Amino acid sequence: MADRSSGGGHRHHLPDVRALRAPAAQSAGEANPPLRGTGQRRADGAVALPESAGAGHRHFLFFFSDTGGGHRACAEAVAEAVAEHGRADVTLVDIFRASQRFPFTRFPELWPVISGGRGRAWGLFYRLSNHPLLVRSAHTAFWPYVRRALLTMLITHPADLIVSFHGIPNLSLLWAWRALPHQPPLVSVTQDLISVHAAFFPPGFDLYFVPTETARRKAIGWGIAPERIRAIGNPVRPSLVRDARQPQQQARRRLGLDEQARWVLITGGGDGRGGIARILSKLARLRAGTHVIVITGRNEALRRRLHALQLPLHLRIEGFVERMGLWLNAADVVVTKAGPNALAELFIAGRPAVLFRAIPGQETGNVTYAVEGGAARWAPTPDAAAHAIIRLLEDDALRRRMGSAARRLARPQAAATVAEALFRLVEAR
Q1: How many C-beta atoms surround the C-beta of residue 278 within 10 A?
Q2: What does the pLDDT average to over 398-413?
Q3: Distance (Å, rounded) from C-alpha 172 to C-alpha 160?
């Protein structure tokens, strides 16, 4: 355990972001507790997830941020697994929004700009800053500015356990945690598969969860004790796992899809970015009549643009969807960016992937992992993506081999593994 530093809980006014009681979740026997649909969200980023029967014995505090969809998705996956245990309630807080410190409060809105285009500037920053000494230097500079806000945030959220699903604030969060009179267990959960950042691994957390052994070795090289790091895969919501493992025809019936067609699912992640329109246009020229589902996520501009296209495709356009597992299950081929959560989900569904976009730096290793594992093809241009889609649609044996490879990479129990470890940590105190 890290030594406790001096310092008190100086307060100043921050909005009350304590857990807001939400409607109760479905009983344990129901397949899909509506975590996203019933959690209440406020402007400061706090989300209270519903409690399952018997919850309330413990309170867990999860920090994330909407800088990309993966941090929230991972936090919600573990929260759902915690809820299924029925022995704790969870509050999710967007740590940047709740900090009330500019420019951090703007990070979620600025993220599409920061990582947009080809992402070269972000990739360069990611690589150059990826060292523990540089991480410490940056936090030392910002600590006087964020200290009081972080302390107030922790005091406002009395918790039996704290989990961070975002690397950037981790070291300052650790310093604030050391000033608490009572220090609950502190845990870090990393999402990226290979190209992890040193910011996720300041020494002093009780446990660190990473997706792969490669990530674990990097953390050990940065000074983390091996017994504190567990390579468990990337957490995916248990309800998604159940949906992804239904019979394909059943999933298609539930979604109103042609049960006999070969379907391509295209998604750019929760924010629906990427060259999706260009991929569709190229695919339409090369293989008219292809059945395609496009999930645009929160990107309403893309959704409107696709609806305006007049393409010779059987096109189904959806916005943000709750039950992603059903859509993955219904597809024969998945076309997506190389986000860690997107990959973890399609691995569980056992679907071959065409990867058309990766954020330089953090997602580059994800591409390598999926392609070398035999589960994906890298196709960073619309032409390459369209040809890869057609090849997979027309080669049943290749599609089966890549689907089998995806299933070998799957870690469907990752969320449950993290949840069980969290309970053990709390009970050991």
Answers
A1: 15
A2: 97
A3: 19
